[in-house]
Write a structure and sequence with these properties.
By secondary structure, the chain is of the alpha+beta class. 24% of the residues lie in helices and 30% in strands. It has five helices and 34 strands. Strands 1-28-29-30-31 form a five-stranded mixed β-sheet, with no helix packed on it. Strands 15-16-17-18-22 form a five-stranded mixed β-sheet, with no helix packed on it. Strands 2-34-33-32 form a four-stranded antiparallel β-sheet, with no helix packed on it. A hairpin with a 6-residue loop joins strand 30 and strand 31. The longest helix has 52 residues. The radius of gyration is 33 Å and the shape is elongated. The N and C termini lie far apart (110 Å).
């Protein structure tokens, strides 16, 4: 019988043995080096918490001492971004290192096995020169060593790939939100400023109490939003849409961004009503970014310095009056109530996007038709909720996931007024139905069980202006100028007053005072009391259809052609 080793050329076998032995040794060296580096990097990952570095602690202390210092907040944001990038770079390196280690181990094992096979195929040592005496031993050691390294890699991979502790939130907290005015009608959709010194009296025509007045390039009905020393708003026509940033201190235009071409954009709506216009929705900001939406479905986001972060087109909405729902915000999410068409055609939806990246977090279909109401985010005893209004439903969602929580059937007709929240009750109104006071602690359809009270005097119900409440009293304002004050305890009417002027802007509360803006530009400042009492009047000098924004002891007002600030010098 022929010896199989005779079929293998001695010189070739020796070459294969040497090559395999050298390759196994080299691969083993690479594996050992990779294992050491991975262990070191693993320790650094465990010890270096990006949110607990001495530098981060120091600047957080400085921010806590001076919460309104925008330069400190910018430094904190930049440091947070840099530390997180370093942390995730180390995690990426750990993943790549594990692949290198695994590859080196596989190569070492293959080469060691090849060395053993080559050794066996060598001719009988009595007739031919013997191969290196330590080849078999080296192969056995290589296999044993690689087995140990493979086990170590498995353990290290288990440590490394364990879910990391959730990072501390980077979104603004309640105190920061309350100190600013980041969305339509404030941070929680209930236009109540925490200022202790609201600006009154003032008069734009005479300049009394006016800090500055800046002309705006394009028209729009979006209300201003404020964060630190920046005021944001939008303007637009059928040819051009823009986002503006002004300095809150002196009204300087810091930057203007024109919305460019966006992939997937459809032809613009055939007609947009003048009452709605091309810049009706109010933008939203978290102090790092500002997002804005327009009637053609363009949703854009810029850094507060004016750099485009992302842009997406949601498709031109089928909306008879033009899209007017303002954006809301929850933690890191921009929330879009995109109601359109009819309640049976499946067009309406609730959308959420990450404000930093534009990644869509969720899309939830809504069985409602077109509306012009804006969503609000509220903090209740049973958790945070996103409240939406549209014929015929008031629907509450879990804002982080878009999961529906409860719904109440109480609205009819075209939806214009947005909801408000005060005294533990959600207030939703429309002229064709009622003002409904809803307890937000139910599940499913709670129409029969969670309606605390209702008010349905038709000529007192609004069709555009949203209600406002301070927990003790609720206020309704009609387009015709009828203001009604109700008791929050039972919905009983306390008083009414007819201004006999058209009102488009929703009423706003600040420092215990109620601000009413008429379309002609008159401002009525009222005491919040069980009887009608006017404290002062003012005039902004132009038509006014938007809601004011408050920050500190200043009020920011958008008129037909200007943005102005009033308050103490």
């Amino acid at each position: 019988m022929t010896d199989p080793r005779a079929l293998w050329h001695p010189r070739l076998a020796r070459l294969a043995l040497r090559a395999a032995t050298a390759s196994a040794a080299l691969a083993a060296g690479v594996a050992v080096t990779a294992a050491v580096l991975l262990a070191v990097n693993h320790v650094r990952l465990r010890l270096a918490d990006p949110l607990d570095s001495p530098e981060m602690k120091q600047i957080k202390t400085q921010v806590a001492a001076a919460p309104k210092d925008s330069s400190l907040r910018q430094r904190l944001s930049e440091l947070d971004s840099r530390l997180r990038q370093e942390h995730f770079s180390r995690r990426d390196m750990q993943t790549r290192g594990l692949w290198v280690l695994a590859g080196a181990i596989v190569v070492c094992l293959v080469c060691a096995h090849t060395a053993v096979i080559s050794r066996r195929r060598l001719p009988d040592p009595m007739n031919h020169a013997s191969p290196p005496a330590n080849a078999s031993a080296l192969g056995r050691w290589a296999i044993a060593g690689c087995t140990v390294l493979l086990a170590a890699a498995a353990v290290l991979a288990g440590w490394t790939t364990r879910p990391p502790a959730p990072p501390a939130p980077t979104w603004p907290g309640p105190a920061e939100l309350a100190a600013n005015w980041p969305a339509f009608r404030g941070f929680d959709g209930s236009p109540v400023s925490r200022t202790s010194e609201p600006p009154t009296p003032f008069d734009v025509r005479t300049g009394k109490g006016v800090l500055w007045k800046t002309p705006l390039p394009l028209p729009g009905h979006s209300s201003p939003v404020v964060w630190d020393n920046r005021v944001f708003l939008t303007g637009g026509t059928s040819e051009k849409r823009e986002v503006y940033c002004l300095a809150a201190d002196d009204g300087r235009m810091l930057w203007t961004q024109t919305v460019g071409d966006i992939p997937g954009r459809e032809p613009p709506p055939a007609e947009i009503l003048e009452d709605t216009g091309w810049a009706a929705p109010t933008p939203v900001t978290d102090g790092r970014f500002v997002a804005a939406i327009f009637p053609n479905g363009d949703l854009v986001c810029y850094s507060v310095e004016g750099k485009l972060a992302w842009a997406v087109n949601l498709g031109t909405p089928k909306n008879g009056y033009g899209h007017a729902s303002s954006l809301a915000m929850y933690h890191n999410l921009v929330l879009v109530q995109y109601d359109q068409g009819s309640e049976t055609d499946g067009r309406s939806c609730l959308l959420a996007f990450d404000i930093a990246t534009g990644r869509q977090a969720y899309r939830r279909p809504r069985s409602v038709g077109q509306s012009w109401t804006s969503p609000i985010v509220i903090a209740t005893a049973v958790g945070d909720q996103l409240i939406t209004c549209s014929n015929p439903w008031v629907i509450a969602y879990q804002p982080a996931s878009g999961t529906e929580l409860w719904r109440v059937k109480c609205l009819e007709g075209d939806g214009g007024p947005s909801a408000a929240y005060a005294g533990g009750l959600v207030l939703a109104a429309n002229e064709s139905s009622m003002l409904a006071a809803i307890r937000p602690d139910g599940q499913g359809d709670v129409t029969a069980s969670k309606l605390a009270w209702k008010y349905d005097e038709a000529h007192h119900l609004p069709n555009i202006c949203s209600p406002v409440a301070d927990g003790t009293r609720a206020y309704l304002l009609t387009t015709e100028g009828m203001l009604t004050c109700l008791s929050m305890a039972d919905g009983r009417k306390l008083w009414e007053h007819d201004f006999k002027e058209k009102c488009i802007a929703s009423p706003t509360l600040a420092g215990g005072l109620l601000y009413i803006f008429t379309e002609k530009g008159a401002v009525h400042v009222l005491a919040t009391a069980d009887e009608y009492r006017e404290v002062s009047t003012a005039d902004v000098g132009e038509s006014c259809r938007t809601c004011p924004a408050f920050a500190g002891d200043r009020m920011f007002i958008r008129t037909e052609k200007h943005l102005l600030a009033v308050g103490k010098n």
